[in-house]
C-alpha cells in the first residue's frame, strides 16, 4: 500500500491517539485465529486480496504483510515463513501503551502499476486509511473506510 498522492489540505495526515499492543511472533495457526471477525488485505504472487478472515488461507501466506481491521482494531502481521510478527492497534482507545499515530488516506496501487500483480476491481472500490506509527521502529497499519 502506498499513500495517495497529495491532492490538497484534506489529504494531509492527522494525529490520532491509539492503544498499541505488541503481540509478537506467532505461529500461523495462532496468528490466523486473531483475525476472526476482521476483513483482511494482502498482496501475494496471485495479486492483491481483500477478504473476510475466514477466507485467509490456512497455510502461511507467500506475502510480506497482512493487514486486518474491524470496527475497533487494526492488526498488522509481517509474515516470516511459518510465523507472523503481529501487532494490534486500537485507534482512539485508552489503556495499554498509548501512542500518537498519523492517519492518512491511502490506495493499494495505481490501476496499471503491476507491483502486486493484477488488482481486482474491489481493490479500488474501497477507501483505505493508512495509520502510521512513527519513531525508531515505524510501522503502517491499514484499514478500509467507507467508500
Structural class: mainly beta
Order of H and E elements = EEHEEEEEEHEE
Helix count, per DSSP? 2
Strand segment tally: 10
Q: Largest sheet at a glance?
A: 10 strands, antiparallel
User: Helix share of residues?
Assistant: under 10%
Distance between the termini: 17 Å
Relative strand content: over 45%
* Gyration radius, rounded: 15 Å
Mean pLDDT: 86
| Basic shape | globular
Low-confidence stretches: none
Topology record:
Elements: E1 2-3, E2 14-27, H1 28-34, E3 39-44, E4 47-52, E5 65-69, E6 74-80, E7 83-91, E8 97-107, H2 122-125, E9 127-133, E10 139-145
Task: Name the features.
147 residues; mainly beta; 10-stranded antiparallel sheet; 2 helices; 7% helix; globular
In short:
By secondary structure, the chain is mainly β.
Description:
It is built from two helices and ten strands. The model has no long low-confidence stretch (mean pLDDT 86). It is mainly beta. Strands 1, 2, 3, 4, 5, 6, 7, 8, 9 and 10 form a ten-stranded antiparallel beta sheet that branches. It is 7% helix and 50% strand. A hairpin with a 2-residue loop joins strand 6 and strand 7 (83-91).
